[in-house]
């Protein structure tokens, strides 16, 4: 079969506009080029001809997933929902999520939750120092793991029998778990729910978007590093947000510059040859939230699961992060002082 | 299948994103090519393809021939200098705009991975390196399944697993090693990337992302440790702008003197003409990768069999 080039990159509009439906019970594995049993095209696409599932998919109830109202009800006690996105991996999405959560939680009146939707590479539990915890199930639902009195976490890591087990799942199974995280986790009253995502623009992102559309998302913070190889993928993520109707709260540049601890000479390890995040933010017309320098101590804090803010409150990276946190607060309509009270040193 | 004439297939994997899978793939490809082998690079990272950018061939397009897609050439074989040919295939070459998002659910990605494995006309090729996205999901399952079903016996030589030293990264990469165990993919070895950064001003080496995590992980899983690769901003500059790497006098890597032009001379030729593979020879990472590559070749050719256990 000669492949056709025209067919390869298709319009994403179709994927985004049609929300997920409930997955019907299939009698056979999905075939090649399957449009997805949850999609609008289920049972009707060319590739459905001859598939044993065709009748099941075609007769499945139309319209959006019936679980969406349940999700909306479950999340009704949450004031602000913020997504942390990046097209590129390893730029610091989870690090930034954990720092943002710690920063919000410094205000004892705020309650913060983190939902880790990275199913294949969950990092949040390690960074929060709760890697060996498990989820407790009660009549009201699944209880998150509480790191602090006002900071709770949910991740697939808590469900694994062994710490290093691989989660070898295809898309539909990942979607199912994300739905359960949203529907069955008993968050209670939260001021902030931070949703950490895996790299890319695929199943997890589409699911989070379609499940949360009804209950409303404040917006997304996009994280990047300065070099063009990363910006290239981040540009795709911003394009995705635009098309999916997710508001971009702003762009954060992480690992921006490295100050040698010996001679204090600043090196650009990941050089911003095309102007870095600042230029991209301008090009895409979105707010630039700030640049956080590369500080080895941030990585160390994450490895040991402690809060960088508490461990190194006087470091330049900490000051930069605090400014970014305040800007995020401003973007979602909060007073900077209420998000992160100014300490006399800042 | 289009892989019939490919002698060795090597996967580049990592559970964690941004650890340098694509830049390690790039450097392995350049080093294998410098060692005289013909190399193909297949990029199955569909939502974030980096290979076209790293080889500086972003504007190239794939051409169609009877029976399949023709991969994009990076440089031809040169028997005089003993360099093997290098070709690439990536979804990046199929996109209309470089900023376009590819928003695909699992089944669509599966179909594309299968198509990449069956419809690309590699022809005669010594090494096919397959660069993967982070994780253990659709692309990986499809890749493992398709190779298991269609590859010739002994054609898939195994996987090079990339990590960075910090515990947060090795935690995810351990999952990938378990994926290899479950899917029966042999692990050729582990490379620790971003291991230390040498300040260009005072030559102090800082372990930006701590150090040694990759080696410990390799020992724990009883797989070969192929080596540590430091951060070299000159390599980033090379792939970002095409500038030939330059180092101050006295720079020496594994006994090879890397110091070349003065910094003033370097500033003058930002867009130097010449092949990436030629310029890469001036990079301080080149001797490191020469050693890693010769280890990989030895494993692939069956000369190094036993893993150097703990």
TrEMBL record, chain A:
One of its GO terms (cellular component) is cytosol. Transmembrane segments: none annotated. It is found in: Cytoplasm; Nucleus. Belongs to the Mrp/NBP35 ATP-binding proteins family. NUBP1/NBP35 subfamily. Keywords: 4Fe-4S, ATP-binding, Cytoplasm, Iron, Iron-sulfur, Metal-binding, Nucleotide-binding. [4Fe-4S] cluster 2 binds at residues 260, 263. PANTHER family: CYTOSOLIC FE-S CLUSTER ASSEMBLY FACTOR NUBP1, NUCLEOTIDE-BINDING PROTEIN NBP35 YEAST -RELATED. One of its GO terms (biological process) is iron-sulfur cluster assembly. Residues 1-46 are annotated as: Disordered. It comes from the Eukaryota. It comes from Coleophoma crateriformis. Its main location: cytoplasm. Component of the cytosolic iron-sulfur (Fe/S) protein assembly (CIA) machinery. Required for maturation of extramitochondrial Fe-S proteins. The NBP35-CFD1 heterotetramer forms a Fe-S scaffold complex, mediating the de novo assembly of an Fe-S cluster and its transfer to target apoproteins. GO terms for molecular function: 4 iron, 4 sulfur cluster binding; ATP binding; ATP-dependent FeS chaperone activity; metal ion binding. ATP binds at residues 87-94. This is Cytosolic Fe-S cluster assembly factor NBP35. InterPro entries: Mrp-like_CS (IPR000808), Mrp/NBP35_ATP-bd (IPR019591), NUBP1/Nbp35 (IPR028601), P-loop_NTPase (IPR027417), YlxH/NBP35 (IPR033756). CDD domains: Mrp_NBP35 (cd02037). [4Fe-4S] cluster 1 binds at residues 34, 48, 51, 57.
TrEMBL record, chain B:
GO terms for molecular function: 4 iron, 4 sulfur cluster binding; ATP binding; ATP-dependent FeS chaperone activity; metal ion binding. The keyword Cytoplasm applies. CDD domains: Mrp_NBP35. One of its GO terms (cellular component) is cytosol. SUPFAM superfamilies: P-loop containing nucleoside triphosphate hydrolases. ATP binds at residues 15-22. Pfam families: ParA. It is found in: Cytoplasm. One of its GO terms (biological process) is iron-sulfur cluster assembly. [4Fe-4S] cluster binds at residues 199, 202. Keywords: 4Fe-4S, ATP-binding, Cytoplasm, Iron, Iron-sulfur, Metal-binding, Nucleotide-binding. Its main location: cytoplasm. Coiled coil: none annotated. PANTHER family: CYTOSOLIC FE-S CLUSTER ASSEMBLY FACTOR NUBP2 (PTHR23264:SF19), NUCLEOTIDE-BINDING PROTEIN NBP35 YEAST -RELATED (PTHR23264). Belongs to the Mrp/NBP35 ATP-binding proteins family. NUBP2/CFD1 subfamily. Component of the cytosolic iron-sulfur (Fe/S) protein assembly (CIA) machinery. Required for maturation of extramitochondrial Fe-S proteins. The NBP35-CFD1 heterotetramer forms a Fe-S scaffold complex, mediating the de novo assembly of an Fe-S cluster and its transfer to target apoproteins. This is Cytosolic Fe-S cluster assembly factor CFD1. It comes from Coleophoma crateriformis.
């Amino acid at each position: 079969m000669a492949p056709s080039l025209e067919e390869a990159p298709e319009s994403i509009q179709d994927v985004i506009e049609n929300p997920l439906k409930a997955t019907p019970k299939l009698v056979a594995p999905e075939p090649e080029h399957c449009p997805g049993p949850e999609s609008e095209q289920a049972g009707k696409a060319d590739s459905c001809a001859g598939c044993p599932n065709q009748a099941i998919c075609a007769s499945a109830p139309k319209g959006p997933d019936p679980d969406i109202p349940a999700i909306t009800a479950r999340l009704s006690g949450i004031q602000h929902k913020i997504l942390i996105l990046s097209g590129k991996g390893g730029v610091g999405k989870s690090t930034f999520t954990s720092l943002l959560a710690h920063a919000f939680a410094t205000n004892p009146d705020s309650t913060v939750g983190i939902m880790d939707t990275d199913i294949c590479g969950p990092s949040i539990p390690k960074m929060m120092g709760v890697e060996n915890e498990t989820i407790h199930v009660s009549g009201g639902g699944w209880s998150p793991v509480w790191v602090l009195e006002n900071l709770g976490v949910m991740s697939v890591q808590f469900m694994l029998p062994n710490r290093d087990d691989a989660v070898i799942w295809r898309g539909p199974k990942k979607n199912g778990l994300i739905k359960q995280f949203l529907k069955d986790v008993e968050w209670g009253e939260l001021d902030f729910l931070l949703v950490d995502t895996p790299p890319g623009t695929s199943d997890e992102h589409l699911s989070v978007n379609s499940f949360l559309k009804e209950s409303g998302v404040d917006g997304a913070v996009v994280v990047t590093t300065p070099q063009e190889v990363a910006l290239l993928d981040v540009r795709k993520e911003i394009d995705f947000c635009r098309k999916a109707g997710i508001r971009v709260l702003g762009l954060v540049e992480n690992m921006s510059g490295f100050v040698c601890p010996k001679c204090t000479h600043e090196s650009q390890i990941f050089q911003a040859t095309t102007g870095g995040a600042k230029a991209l933010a301008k090009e895409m017309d979105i707010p630039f939230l700030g640049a956080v320098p590369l500080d080895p101590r941030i990585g160390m804090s994450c490895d040991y699961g402690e809060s960088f803010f508490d461990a190194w409150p006087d470091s330049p990276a900490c000051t930069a992060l605090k400014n970014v946190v305040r800007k995020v607060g401003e973007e979602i309509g909060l007073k900077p002082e209420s998000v992160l009270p100014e300490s006399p040193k800042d | 299948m289009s892989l019939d004439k490919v002698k060795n297939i090597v996967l580049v994997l990592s559970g964690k994103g941004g650890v340098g899978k694509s830049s390690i793939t790039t450097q392995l490809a350049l080093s294998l090519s410098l060692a005289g082998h013909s190399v193909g690079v297949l990029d199955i990272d569909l939502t974030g393809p980096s290979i076209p950018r790293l080889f500086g061939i972003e504007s190239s397009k794939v051409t169609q021939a009877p029976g399949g897609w023709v991969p994009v050439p990076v440089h031809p074989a040169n028997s005089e200098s003993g360099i093997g040919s290098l070709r690439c295939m990536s979804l990046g070459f199929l996109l209309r705009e470089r900023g376009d998002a590819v928003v695909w659910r699992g089944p669509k990605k599966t179909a594309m991975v299968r198509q990449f494995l069956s419809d690309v006309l590699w022809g005669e090729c010594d090494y096919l390196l397959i660069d993967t996205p982070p994780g253990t999901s659709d692309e990986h399952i499809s890749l493992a399944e398709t190779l298991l079903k269609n590859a010739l016996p002994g054609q898939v030589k195994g996987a090079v697993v990339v990590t960075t030293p910090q515990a947060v990264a090795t935690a995810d990469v351990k999952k990938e090693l378990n994926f290899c165990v479950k899917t029966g993919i042999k692990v050729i070895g582990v490379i620790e990337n971003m291991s230390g950064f040498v300040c260009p001003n005072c030559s102090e080496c800082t372990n930006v992302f701590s150090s040694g995590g990759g080696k410990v992980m390799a020992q724990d899983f009883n797989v070969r440790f192929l080596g540590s690769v430091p951060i070299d901003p000159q390599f980033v500059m090379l792939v970002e702008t095409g500038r030939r790497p330059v180092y101050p006098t006295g720079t020496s890597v594994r006994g090879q003197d890397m110091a070349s032009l003065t910094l003033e001379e370097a500033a003058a030729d930002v867009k130097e003409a010449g092949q990436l593979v030629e310029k890469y020879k001036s990079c301080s990472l080149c001797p490191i990768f020469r050693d890693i590559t010769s280890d990989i070749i030895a494993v692939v050719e069956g000369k190094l069999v036993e893993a150097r256990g703990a």
